[in-house]
Amino acid sequence: MHPVRVSIPSFRSENNSIEKGYTVFKIDVLMSGRLYSIEKRYSEFHALHKMLKRCIKPPEMPSKHVRNWVPKVLEQRRQGLELYLQTIIMENEVLPKIFLDFLNIRHFPSVPKTESCGKLSHQPVMLFLRDPYLLPHDEFSNVVIEGVIHGIFYPDLQPR
């Protein structure tokens, strides 16, 4: 189970003189015990869907065309978009970077050589230049500190 949970608790209509009215969906994202909200239009969901098709098989999206803008129809769209996001999280062990960017999740480092479509992969956090278990007991703590320092300051250094 992913440490990311999403819900779409509400939506609101926007009208302005420059463009035709549209609906904005409020997305609540819960990650690592922190809750924050973002707002997205349906067109942004649609763009996400098109990009996700290149790297995963995303679930079906609610219809792009809505016959009328009555609250009942918009509520059905809200529920459909919420299910869409939740299904992506449930069905993918590795969440595509495109999806994480859509949710404004930037807590993961970007890795230069990742799988296609910007999926994230594991990276070692520290590197030991010597095997700490083959050292005498009193040198063990020094090799841990040494490994952490090398991992932070010399991340490209390979073990001997």
UniProtKB/TrEMBL annotation:
Keyword terms: Cytoplasmic vesicle, Lipid-binding, Membrane, Protein transport, Transport
Location of the PX domain: 1-115
Membrane topology reported for the UniProt record: Peripheral membrane protein
Annotated protein name in UniProt: Sorting nexin 24
Cellular compartment(s): Cytoplasmic vesicle membrane
Species of the source: Oryzias latipes
Listed GO CC annotations: cytoplasmic vesicle membrane
GO function terms (MF aspect): phosphatidylinositol binding
Keyword Cell inner membrane: no
One Pfam family in the UniProt entry: PX
Entries under CDD domains matching the protein: PX_SNX22
Family, as annotated: Belongs to the sorting nexin family.
Keyword Transcription regulation: no
GO-annotated biological processes: protein transport
